[in-house]
């Protein structure tokens, strides 16, 4: 136990080491590798056949319009760009877009939306526990811990099989207490690529209703899996069945505006009045953290969605990204029976059946960078690198 004097004598130099997020470490490691043949399948950024992450043409066009027409950079307020959130409603909420019990606001990326959503839960019910299927996105647990909520994890994924441990998931939901929160990946599960099918979503939704849990859906890759509508089907089923739902959404990937940090948080409660009250808390929490969200990316997305011609072209550019993801998936799946499961999964990620040692060896010997867990970005590599990637992975599995 430190005495008062010890505590007051502590300075910034006494801070302990931080265990930094493994994905951020990976970016730095890969950047520092000077081997020209290196393959970066670490962090989740879409790359095209040439290995580039181009700015979408529709975003370029929207930025030109923004540049020519924006007359002020005066504050917009805590909600950010309200029209942006309004235009997202039909895309995300589908048939629930007109439900006035659902209110959304702009956030700094999906990460900001997650933090804000968990802040809201912690404000309403600090004793709520968050059920998290593992493995999950490495930043989920720190965000949940940062608001002081307890976490209950359960095994979500059977690594060798590439399949979901659905019985374990259902058992975890059945054991939860009313008011607990079920964190769910809306689509394109990160890191496994293993999405619930329609029947599994139905059963999960039923269990959530029965146990009176609050579903919290993280949907960061809508349109990268089966299609824009299909990828939101699970979320929409929850909205139909539950009075209270929280949705953390991201446009960073499906509009390819990663560094602009474009996201939103949608909250549904049983009445318009209760949602408005909840949003007052959300705004207060946002004010304490970032005051107001950054404008530029959301404004560009808003222009795309508000301009029918650009909106149509965006759907085309999104489909092209999805098609590349799915065709690279099929190519890898066809290469070896042990990789066949990758062809049945969705989104930017899957986990290779490799140990941490094998992953590190790939890094050392082949300059292939993926997360220690074996998670790799399906479209991290160029077309020209796929053959070498597959050969190296098969060699590692054979070793
Ligand atoms: C990822 O999982 O690679 C992305 O969501 C990027 C991030 O912020 O971790």
Inertia-based shape: globular
Give the termini distance in whole angstroms.
50 Å
Helix content: 40-55%
List each distinct ligand once: (2S)-2-hydroxybutanedioic acid
Helix-strand string: HHEHHEHEHEEEHEHEHHEEHHHEHEEH
Please give the number of β-strands. Answer: 13
By DSSP (H or I, 4+ residues per run), the number of helices equals 15
Biggest sheet strand line-up: 2-10-9-8-7-3-4
Estimate the mean pLDDT confidence. Answer: 96
Computed over alpha carbons, the radius of gyration is 22 Å
Sheet bearing the most strands, described? 7 strands, mixed
- Strand residue content: 5-15%
**Structural class based on helices, strands and sheet pairing:** alpha/beta
Give your account of this protein's structure.
- Helices cover 46% and strands 14% of the residues.
- It has helices at 4-9, 22-32, 57-69, 82-93, 109-124, 140-146, 166-174, 198-211, 228-231, 233-241, 272-289, 296-306, 308-335, 356-366, 383-398, and strands at residues 39-40, 102-108, 129-134, 150-155, 157-158, 163-164, 181-185, 214-219, 245-250, 262-268, 349-351, 368-369, 375-377.
- The strands form 4 sheets. A 7-stranded mixed beta sheet has the order 2-10-9-8-7-3-4, with helices on both faces.
- (2S)-2-hydroxybutanedioic acid binds at residues 23, 43-44, 137, 139, 190.
